[in-house]
Amino acid sequence: MAGNIISNDNGDAMVFCGTLIHATKASPMVILQDQVIGVRKGKILFVQPKEDLDKLLDQHNLSKGCVKYLTKYQFVMPGLIDTHIHAPQSVYAGTALDLTLLDWLSRYTYPTEAKFSDLDFATHAYKKVVRRTLTCGTTTATYFATIHKESSLKLAEIAADLGQRAFVGKVNADKNSPSNYIETLGQSLADTEWFIEKMKDLDNPLIAPVITPRFAITCSWELMTGLGELAKKHNIRVQSHISENRDEIKSVLEAYPDCKNYTDVYDKCGLMTDKTLMAHCVYLDDDEIQTFKDRGSAMSHCPCSNFSLRSGVMDCRKMKDSGVKLGLGTDVSGGYNPSMFGAIRDAVTATNVQSIQHLPEHPYRHLDFKEIFQLATLGGSEVLGIEDTVGNFEVGKEFDALLVTMDTEDSPFEIFENAAYEDSLEVSLKSVVNFQDDVVQKFFFRGDDRNIEEVYVCGRKVKPFKDEETKQQQQQ
């Protein structure tokens, strides 16, 4: 159920009054009650106690008409950042999880991605992908597209049109791929540069190209080196996969015997930089982790995919404590769930599994849901180099946010009041149990898109979608 919403007569300005939840570098989850957050032209103007509301409205020349008052079971949180998702694989997400990685790629992934040479098919699919991820609260997505330059550009155009912040990569592959889904070296590099230039022509600050070699098995040394040079020339980011599966690692080392480990392959090709993001990182050794640190490269933890394809369990605690930049990814469709809330829950399970595997004499400090929340928001922004722009509610940052309502009529979980046990956002000592954060924790473990009433990117409301709002107005 919605809060008491007063219409906005200031156009580009809005103020939320109620509970805010975000992460900082010092604290993985901060719950700020009775606060006001002001936004103008997409940027955060102020975050102050509710008692200062009238003074803040006068100070910033805002009327009371731009204030949205939240109920006690609503809060505003930063938008979620998916640091690794394959947009074309959404077509078969939730199926084809009966194989391990390399067989799964050959039998399901490559045949599906080959279909994206058809621009009409790609347009239809990508509209569904972007709408779905926005519905689930993903305000920033780092997409793998396919080897097809036109349909990859179409994905970027759709994200721009629907208002999502997106990094989009045209995939590169010039070996060990099917005959109908492979490039030549020259074609791959030329198409990638074409794609980069066309992305620049969009002139949209929310959309950026990212160099995307699929992984070392499907890319020749010459291609990877050429892509490293393109990334440097255009000063753009790099994304790929690393150390996901033991058979994959074995194949890479057999293909590149002069390299000491998987990370060394990318490093020698100029692909390990402070703008690099590698997905999975399940089996990296200490030397490889050190290379990530030395180069300033980042990791995307994709637990649902790692479980589903039986690849392994990343030691998230070890990576986080090493100081490497770390974010979360859904990895659709190795991961079957497009929601980052699913990624948060699976990451909690993954760290619990690591804890179980450690012997009592070697205790393991698992990550709790608050630390994982930090990875899904502020951590993701650091991984993508946009921590000065988004990730939490610091004044001056752009307002990428979700309005969460925990007691919607179709909520997947229940709120209990006036009982021996009462859900509350407040500190309570009704018993020996501290009930602080209980209802918030319920949402993170049981909530879904039905609880996400509104989604904002750079201050623009992108959920509900325009067609949905029109339908709602007609019904009213």
UniProtKB/TrEMBL annotation:
For this protein, what is the EC number?
Answer: 3.5.4.3
> Which species is this record about?
Strongylocentrotus purpuratus (Purple sea urchin)
Q: What does this protein do?
A: Catalyzes the hydrolytic deamination of guanine, producing xanthine and ammonia.
Keywords on this record?
Hydrolase, Metal-binding, Zinc
Indicate whether Zinc appears among the record's keywords. Answer: yes
Its family?
Belongs to the metallo-dependent hydrolases superfamily. ATZ/TRZ family.
Q: What is the lineage of its organism?
A: Eukaryota, Metazoa, Echinodermata, Eleutherozoa, Echinozoa
- Protein name, entry field: Guanine deaminase
Enzymatic reactions:
guanine + H2O + H(+) = xanthine + NH4(+)
